[in-house]
């Protein structure tokens, strides 16, 4: 077939065209190979996330199904999660009811009382000096490690501990569950608000530059290729023959690069378990590209190679004489580049204030499409603005004039090289703006030293346990104003159920405006149609049935008050009682809730407070602020770290492309540089002109990045319903780092300049 012959001719030109052809093939293949390898790692995220979820589900257990009867195959289990210096620690207390009790995934033998099995990462932490306070809290002997199948990732901190005899079997605990096996069905709660916007934007910003880089890599050595196509056209080949020949020349590089990318992926895959980003890592066995994405990446690389080749060779095919004599590049069209920016802006604006629908989700398609179009538009507008800026540059020193004249004659390579950087910097500036707004939202919720925003819950203590908890917390040197109450819920009243809190007068003042108080007083919380009155009998359920308490005189009705902003207002109908009022009631054990502050506020003080709670009960918990917000912040931190790592990887790839482009550009102009050197232009002037050639497109690109990235970040904040805020220092740091990358790459290419100005380069064939 004619097409096959023409494509074969292009392949032959690529592999038998001498040293220059081999160099171009190596440049194209290496650029595509690196990009494909990174894309394959990114394509493995769905399978890695699925594997993480499957392991999480395998060790979970149903809480909403009917509790099984005690048999020789049942197990009592209780939550014992904790935190250590901001890291979550997954923990469970276990008490088998018979030798046949099920074991969690990854655990061979259930630990006995006072023993625990731990994850490898937790064992490393406990054995290190950094884990001393956590070792005091988890005062169990380590008898084994949890296998990979029982961990969501290699870096997870997790343990299973054997509970003290009868700690979980007592019906009074209320914190344990009886199960006959592990494994639960999944229910995915969709992300919403700022979390989803951040994840979507980060994915686009991290991956889009790789596509831009591949497109740029396909243009390495394009000048020589265009002249070869011009010769074919002048020899009588039509435009489509020349285009198919060029496609064949490029396809071999794309195929070799794709194969190299798959070969490079496997060594990268083995490094993943040793890398932890934002507290997230993965097992090497989970790093498997999604089948559809694994097929789409090579097909996309080949399709992109054909598309870029057809577009980039259109000029040489249409006007071979201009390509042969290296005529000045024509004026670029603006309308279709501006249309991308306009379309992306319209999509983003349509998402602001849109109906979030169920679960408060943002319109993902509009956000992804809008960010994609805006970033592409910013990158594609840059060459047009660069051409305008260069055409108007006139005055300056000799290095400046040499650089400007070179860019006016043919600055296409320089503008192409900076497009990928513009996409990354624009996205990074938008992400920095998004982060700044989100951080400002949570900045107001940061605890202030001494402010009582810490809450702890200790299960199953007697009514006098509130004083014990407050006393134990107060023994920690930096704890301030620790006050606790015993809480009873679902008390059977004469009409509707009520709740009861028992604590000292100072502790009750945290929950209501009780005014004057003395031991023996009882107060009723306002705002209910059900009144509690003296003489009413309240039944408080416990393990042995129910305790009965006859309500003494209610001193007054009081207004509720949230003690610490933790959302713990006493509900209408609550009863607040001092210890003297319930002294003879023989109330059952129940949970104790305490609120306290820390001053000075240090990480060590937080951990010492948690240790004090753990001494009272291994199932005690300590939180700061509202738990949901803390979880949201941790999720945002994880996503932010993953996005930063992805953007950093893309920046490294683009930096590699800039190095290759700079060296290839110097090789393409070595004859002109040699002529200048032979004419008396000193090496310093030539080096400065090379730096100026990199600085001019860089300045234009960074200006576009700032002009587009800041409004893009503001629009994303509006979509996420977060107050708009800008981090000038962070944006300046991103801009400076990007400029440093380009200038460093240019400096690294100066040794190639010394080789290019040698006299032997004056020869021409």
How would you describe what is shown here?
α2 (19-43) runs antiparallel to α6 (193-217). The protein has 23 helices and 17 strands. Mean pLDDT is 78; it is low at 356-360. The strands form three sheets. The chain has an eight-stranded mixed β-sheet. Strands 1, 2, 3, 4, 5, 6 and 7 form a seven-stranded mixed β-sheet that branches. The radius of gyration is 34 Å and the shape is elongated. It is an alpha+beta fold and 765 residues long. β9 and β10 form a beta hairpin. The chain starts with a helix and ends in a 9-residue tail after the last helix. The longest helix is centred in the C-terminal third of the chain and has 42 residues, at 627-668. The chain folds into three domains: 2-51 and 193-443 and 631-656 and 690-744, no CATH class; 67-179, no CATH class; 454-624, no CATH class.
Shape: elongated
Biggest sheet descriptor: 8 strands, mixed
Average pLDDT across residues?
78
Class by helix and strand content?
A: alpha+beta
Number of strands: 17
Give the strand content: 5-15%
Given as residue ranges, the uncertain stretches (5+ residues, pLDDT < 50) are 356-360
Number of domains: 3
Rg over CA atoms? 34 Å
Distance between the termini: 34 Å
Helix content: 40-55%
Subcellular location: Cell membrane
Organism: Streptomonospora alba
Main location: membrane
Protein name: ABC3 transporter permease C-terminal domain-containing protein
């Amino acid at each position: 077939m004619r097409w096959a012959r023409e494509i074969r001719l292009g392949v032959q030109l690529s592999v038998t065209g001498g040293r220059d052809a081999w160099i171009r093939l190596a440049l194209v293949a290496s650029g595509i190979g690196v990009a494909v390898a990174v894309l394959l790692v990114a394509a493995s995220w769905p399978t890695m996330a699925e594997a993480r979820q499957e392991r999480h589900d395998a060790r979970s257990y149903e809480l909403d199904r009917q509790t099984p009867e005690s048999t020789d195959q049942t197990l009592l289990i209780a939550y014992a999660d904790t935190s250590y210096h901001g890291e979550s620690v997954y923990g469970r207390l276990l008490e088998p009811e018979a030798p046949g009790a099920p074991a969690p995934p990854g655990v061979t033998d259930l630990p006995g009382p006072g023993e625990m099995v731990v994850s490898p990462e937790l064992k490393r932490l406990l054995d290190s000096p950094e884990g001393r306070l956590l070792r005091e809290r988890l005062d169990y002997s380590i008898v084994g490690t949890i296998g990979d199948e029982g961990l969501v990732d290699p870096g997870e901190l997790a343990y299973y501990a054997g509970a003290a005899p009868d700690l979980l079997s007592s019906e009074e605990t209320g914190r344990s569950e009886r199960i006959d096996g592990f494994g639960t069905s999944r229910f995915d709660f969709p992300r919403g608000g700022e979390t989803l916007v951040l994840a979507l934007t980060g994915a686009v910003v991290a991956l889009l530059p790789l596509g831009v880089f591949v497109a740029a890599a396909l243009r390495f050595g394009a000048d020589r290729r265009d002249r070869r196509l011009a010769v074919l056209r002048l020899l009588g080949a039509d435009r489509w023959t020349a285009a198919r020949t060029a496609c064949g020349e490029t396809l071999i590089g794309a195929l070799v690069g794709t194969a190299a990318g798959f070969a490079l992926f496997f060594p990268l895959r083995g490094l993943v378990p040793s890398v932890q980003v934002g507290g997230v890592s993965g097992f090497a066995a989970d790093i498997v590209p999604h089948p559809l994405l694994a097929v789409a990446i090579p097909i996309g690389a080949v399709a992109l190679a054909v598309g870029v080749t057809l577009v980039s060779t259109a000029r040489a095919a249409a006007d071979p004489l201009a390509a042969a004599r290296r005529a000045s590049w024509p004026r670029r069209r603006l309308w279709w580049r501006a249309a991308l920016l306009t379309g992306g802006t319209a999509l983003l604006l349509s998402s602001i204030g849109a109906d979030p629908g169920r679960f408060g989700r943002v319109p993902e398609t509009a956000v992804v499409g809008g960010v994609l179009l805006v970033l592409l538009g910013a990158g594609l507008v840059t060459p047009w603005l660069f051409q305008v800026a260069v055409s108007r540059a006139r005055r300056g020193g000799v290095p400046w004039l040499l650089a400007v004249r070179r860019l006016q004659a043919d600055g296409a390579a320089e503008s192409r090289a900076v497009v990928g950087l513009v996409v990354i910097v624009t996205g990074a500036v938008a992400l920095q703006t998004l982060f700044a707004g989100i951080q400002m939202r949570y900045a107001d919720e940061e605890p202030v030293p001494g402010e009582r925003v810490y809450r702890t819950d200790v299960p199953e203590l007697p009514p006098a346990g509130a004083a014990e908890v407050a006393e134990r917390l107060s023994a920690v040197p930096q704890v301030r104003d620790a006050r606790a109450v015993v809480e009873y819920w679902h008390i059977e009243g004469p009409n509707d159920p009520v709740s009861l809190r028992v604590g000292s007068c100072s502790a009750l003042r945290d929950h209501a405006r009780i005014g004057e108080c003395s031991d023996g007083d009882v107060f009723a919380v306002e705002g209910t149609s059900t009144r509690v009155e003296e003489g009413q009998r309240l039944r408080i359920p416990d393990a042995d049935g129910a305790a009965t308490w006859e309500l003494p005189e209610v001193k007054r009705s009081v207004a509720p008050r949230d003690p610490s902003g933790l959302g713990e207002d006493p509900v209408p109908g609550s009863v607040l009682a001092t210890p003297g009022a319930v002294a003879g009631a023989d109330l059952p054990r129940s949970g104790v809730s305490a609120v306290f502050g820390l001053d000075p506020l240090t990480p060590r003080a937080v951990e010492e407070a948690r240790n004090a709670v753990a001494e009272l009960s291994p199932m005690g918990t300590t939180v700061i602020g509202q738990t949901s917000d803390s979880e949201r912040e941790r999720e945002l931190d994880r996503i932010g770290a993953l996005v930063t790592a992805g953007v950093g990887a893309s920046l490294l790839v683009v930096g590699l492309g800039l190095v290759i482009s700079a060296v290839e550009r110097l090789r393409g102009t070595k004859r002109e540089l040699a002529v200048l050197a032979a004419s008396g232009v000193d090496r310093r002037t030539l080096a400065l002109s090379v730096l100026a050639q990199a600085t001019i497109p860089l300045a234009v690109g960074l200006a576009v990045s700032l002009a587009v990235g800041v409004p893009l970040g503001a629009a994303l904040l509006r979509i996420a319903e977060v107050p708009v805020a800008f981090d000038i220092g962070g944006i300046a740091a991103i801009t400076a780092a990007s400029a440093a990358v380009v200038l460093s790459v240019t400096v690294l290419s100066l040794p190639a300049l010394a080789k290019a100005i040698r006299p032997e380069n004056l020869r021409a064939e």
